[in-house]
Structure of General stress protein:
Amino acid sequence: MTIETLAIEGLSTPVSRIGLGTWAIGGWMWGGTDEKESIAVIRRALDSGINLIDTAPVYGFGASEEIVGKALADGYRHKAVIATKVALEWRDGKVFRNSTPERIRHEVEDTLRRLRIDYIDLYQVHWPDSLVPIEETAAVLNDLRKEGKVLALGVSNFSTQQMDVFRRGAPLSTAQPPYNLFERDIDGDVLPYVKQHGLVALAYGALCRGLLAGRIDVNTKFGGDDLRLHDPKFLTPRRGQYVAAVKALDVFARETFGKSVLALAVRWVLDRGPTIALWGARRPAQLDGIEEVFGWRLDANAFAQIDSIVDRYVKDPVGPEFMAPPQRVQVA
Ligand code: NAP
């Protein structure tokens, strides 16, 4: 299998166009985690040439970074491009934004310790914090870059205006927005911006939280604190529309390309621009379809047919906005 790669400004290693997403590996909001399976899936990704691993301190309140750190031991660090994030704080299980320089300075040390590494390849601001000027956040991140603690900088969930401000204070290499064939708000702004400024988009939720893997139906049950218990796409009756669309997309993918809907969904992200699809997986078998993604492309006709299937079945679309964490309450 030849894995497609692309260059990210600031990194000397070409980066695989599929990145392993490790939010679910942290357990929190995904109904728990299994450490052995998690380490196995990270190593399976690295062994098969997927070198980008995306994590964050808030995933499992440190648990995801800890598990990635354990997976990187025994000689795996040199195979990996580690993307993590900064600027979400948590207290008593509640998460809020905090991009102050003090918070960032504190977090970077925690992250390096949990990941058991001495530098971070790509360091991304997780969510914009309206209480802190973006220039201040960019400046401290640029200092960390100059100190060698991080190699490249990215932002996540930023608007184009916010990226403009960030870029005045520090070199910006990547944006990380939500993006999949059901959630495509960035087509109108962030994706053109990424193209115009030579950035790379790390598309999160490439499988739409599992929907586009093709195994979820209207009866699938989610347990514990799984976010899909509250995700408006997964609630009745709307879930029926999305499941019907996935089934029709699966038929289209198999008849036209001899591929699964999962491969079609990842290919869709990759053929939209300078993108990397973040694929959330927490068991090695969930990566079985990776080789199906490479070696073919979607053309304009295929994109149009996909659009018409989505429009035919999804009459009441909804985005991923429910995931946005709150701002801090300003203390006088
Ligand atoms: P996703 O990749 O769209 O979906 C992940 C889920 O899909 C998995 O947990 C799994 O669910 C299911 N899945 C994966 N492979 C499968 C397969 N072969 N067969 C059946 N089901 C399969 O969602 P995501 O994890 O939210 O997004 C990907 C990554 O993007 C995250 O891990 C994180 O790194 C990043 N992200 C970033 C932000 C941000 O604000 N920057 C927000 C969200 C996500 P089950 O294990 O339950 O079966």
Q: What stands out?
A: The chain has one domain: 5-214+263-297. Residues 238-257 form the longest helix (20 residues). Residues 21-24, 54, 126, 156-157, 176, 204-210, 213, 215, 262, 278-282, 286, 289, 323 surround NAP (CB under 6 Å).
